Amino acid sequence: MHYPIPLSRSSPLRIPLMASSVRAGFPSPADDYVQDNINLNTLLVDDPDCTFLMLASNDAIHGIFKGDYVLIDKARSPAHGNVVVAAHEDGFVLRRLHKQQGLLALMADAPGYPLIPAEGDYMLQIWGVVIAVVRRLV
Amino acid sequence: MSTFALVDGNSFYTSCERVFRPDLIGRPIIVLSNNDGCVVARSAEAKALDIPAFLPFHQVQQLCRKHRVTVFSSNYALYGDMSRRMMNMLSRFAPLQEIYSIDECFLDVTGIPDLDSHGHRIRQAVWQGLGIPNCVGMGSSKTLAKLANHVAKKRPEWKGVFEWDWLNPREADRLLAEFAVGEVWGIGRRIAEKLALMHIHSALDLKQADPRHIKRKFNVVVERTVAELNGVACLALEDVAPTKQQIISSRSFSRLVHDLPALSASIGHHVARAAEKLRGQGCVAGLMGVSIRTNPFRDLGQYHGYTCVPLIHPSADTLLLNRAAQAALRAIWRKEFSYHKAGVILMDIGTPAIQQHDLFSPPPDPKRAQLMAAIDKLNRDFGSGTIRLGAEGLSEGWRMRQNMKSPCYTTRIGDVMQVE
Question: pTM for the whole thing?
Answer without folding.
Answer: 0.73
